[in-house]
Amino acid sequence: SQLAEENPWALSVHEGESVTVNCSYKTSITALQWYRQKSGEGPAQLILIRSNEREKRNGRLRATLDTSSQSSSLSITATRCEDTAVYFCAIAGTGGYKVVFGSGTRLLVSP
Amino acid sequence: GGIITQTPKFLIGQEGQKLTLKCQQNFNHDTMYWYRQDSGKGLRLIYYSITENDLQKGDLSEGYDASREKKSSFSLTVTSAQKNEMAVFLCASSTWGGEDEQYFGPGTRLTVL
Predict the structure, then answer these.
(1) What is the rounded average pLDDT for all residues in chain B?
(2) A20, A65, A95, B112: most buried, per Cβ within 10 A?
(3) How many structural domains are present in chain B?
(4) Contact assignment for B97 to A102 by CB distance below 8 Å
């Protein structure tokens, strides 16, 4: 089974609505990153949250981390059509170079 | 700022062929990565390199070779292309390791006939 997994698999909202993507993971981590991948592009980092942090914000984005339940969430407020993308969580363990990505949540924002 | 360039953008090969994908970065980053992304799936790590001439296997290294002859470049070779294989190969770089932001290239889309 996967070390990191986002849910739901897909979401569809209208512009202006808020949306939350969840991530669960199965190992000890030092940091968790959220990435967004638009069609035809490579992923781009949105937020990095370290294991000693509980919340991080970046504009309309808010990430939370709960190490006791091994879960994270990414919330987007006031969604725009250009937020349409696949959203991945990626986890990093102690002293390592490897980052493990989940399979992603597909978000569609329609007018 | 910097950029990651991947060549070619599209690669079409025949079954059994050896195919090479190239990646260049001008961030002056130490660590570089190769990932495979199948349609509708996440990213799986093939190889990574923490410095020039270093190579580390990822979870999906079988069937691939890699080369890091310069700090700025990282190549991936598909040693024997599999018929009907289709995937996007993504190159990334970061300053150091797993807690750093990874910067990705646009990908090379592979099709094997």
Answers:
(1) 94
(2) A65
(3) 1
(4) no
